[in-house]
Amino acid sequence: MDKHIRNISFVISILVSILVMSVNGGTHRLSCNFPAIYNFGDSNSDTGGSSAAFWPANDPKGETFFHRPAGRGSDGRLIIDFMAEHFGLPLLSPYLDSLGTNFRHGANFAIGGSTIRRLNESMFLNGVPPFPTEIQVVQFRNFKERSTRLYKQAKRKSERRGLPRPDDFTKSLFTFDTGQNDLAAGFRTMTNDQFVKEIPDIINKLADGISNLYNEGARAFWIHNTGPIGCLAVTLRGIHDPLPGYLDRHGCVKFQNDMAIEFNKQLKKKVMELRKKLPLAAFTYIDMFAAKYKLITDAQKEGFLDKAEICCGYHENNNHVWCGNDAIINGTKIHAGSCKDPSNYISWDGVHYTEAANHWIADYIINGSFSDTKLPLSQACHRLPLQSQVELH
Question: Residue 140 domain-assigned?
Fold first, then answer.
């Protein structure tokens, strides 16, 4: 009898161990049922904020998927769009768009040109929008407070249409895709040594924004690092006879990518610190640099043209006419239209990616291939065990 009981106990202990491993450290976690996504960032994830706040998007932007300008710096969908589609959610409405918006399943606070850290006033006057991370987080706080009040005041179900459910905020996914414009601003205004000294302050500003969202109830964070800015097609098209060592072995500007790598190194360290500081939150750090660099270096293998080829715009001999615009160059009228088939290109306009490239990248990051947790997007609500945090060092 005792032996029979011991055998049963042994079997039960094995089953319990398997269950614990599955929940805490295995790959068979339950999928997260995110009811909404709240996104913060720059033009890499701006779904129409800039278009609503400053100037409407022009043709041929949006031609591939939307068949009209849709506020995105691409011919179609962005990575954030594919993420929303993965959960069966509507594409995110920009927070600043007052027409046709539906915020039941999230909102997008990203604005093209935005930085993490506030820039000086002169840069605002030169076209840099005054919507750094700090302001985007303030906008979220206002959005949450006002939408919750309106939801609770509503007497009829129809009055709540398009408003987020107050209980959904804590259950939602909070995504960040920002930092590229901080790097670009640093390249324009500082030496490399000066900018390296500024990186900790920039990272801390982002961490402050995340902490403020945590205090507002945010619990699941999905954070993209910054991409290989030294591989942007518009930069590469302007390089002629570079000095030895200026380009890396794949033909990208080495010092710019080195700055991005240093930025990302410090960002990853900060995310690990936040895991300890904000113990109720789940953090997923996405190596967007590696994902985009893989696409760029494997361009032909993946069916794309060279990284320096640009689908929309005119960029020759240091003359730049941006996508959809007209200009007179050397007495000749130039219309910067789009290419015949954007799906062959990585670069849409020299700075932003095509829908085809965004789709390629999204597929890899959604399945967890480039996340430090190795968890797919569908499991981004699961907190990383402390032991795994130590191993990431």
Answer: yes
- Active-site residue identified among 105, 224, 315, 352: 352
Question: How confident is the model over 102-139, as pLDDT tens digits?
Answer: 999 999 999 999 999 998 654 544 556 789 999 999 99
Examine residue 46 and state whether it is found in any structural domain, yes or no. Answer: yes
CB atoms within 10 A of CB 104: 18
CATH number at residue 225: 3.40.50
Structure tokens at 384: 């990383």
Residue 226, amino acid: T
Domain count across the chain: 1
* Number of residues that this document lists for the chain: 393
Provide the token pair at 351: 């700075």
pLDDT-derived band at 391, boundaries 50, 70, 90: very low
pTM greater than the 0.85 cutoff: yes
The one catalytic residue in 42, 43, 248, 338 is 43
For the residues of 60-118, what is the DSSP string, one character each? Answer: TTTTTTTSS--S-SSSS--HHHHHHHHTTPPPPPBTT--SS---TTEEE---TT--SSP
Q: Which of 248, 349, 371, 372 is catalytic?
A: 349
Q: What is the mean pLDDT of the chain?
A: 90
How far is Cα 50 from Cα 68, in angstroms, rounded to an integer? 16
Residue 76: both structure tokens together:
């179609």
What is the average pLDDT across 7-25?
41
Annotated catalytic, 105? no
The tens digit of pLDDT for each residue in 292-322 reads 999 999 999 999 999 999 999 999 888 999 9
The answer to whether residue 8 is domain-embedded is no
Type and span of the H or E element at 21:
helix 2-24
Under a CB-based contact definition with an 8 Å cutoff, are residues 304 and 343 in contact? no
106 is a domain residue: yes
Classify residue 331 as exposed, middle or buried by CB count within 10 Å of its CB (0-12, 13-18, 19+): exposed
349 annotated active-site? yes
Concerning whether 86 is annotated as a catalytic residue, the answer is no
What are the pLDDT digits (tens) for 156-166? 999 999 999 99
Q: Give the domain range for residue 244.
A: 34-301+355-391
CA-nearest of 148, 266, 164, 288 to 205 is 266
SS (H, E, C) 133-180: HHHHHHHHHHHHHHHHHHHHHCCCHHHHCCCCCHHHCCCCEEEEECCH
CA distance 60 to 52: 17
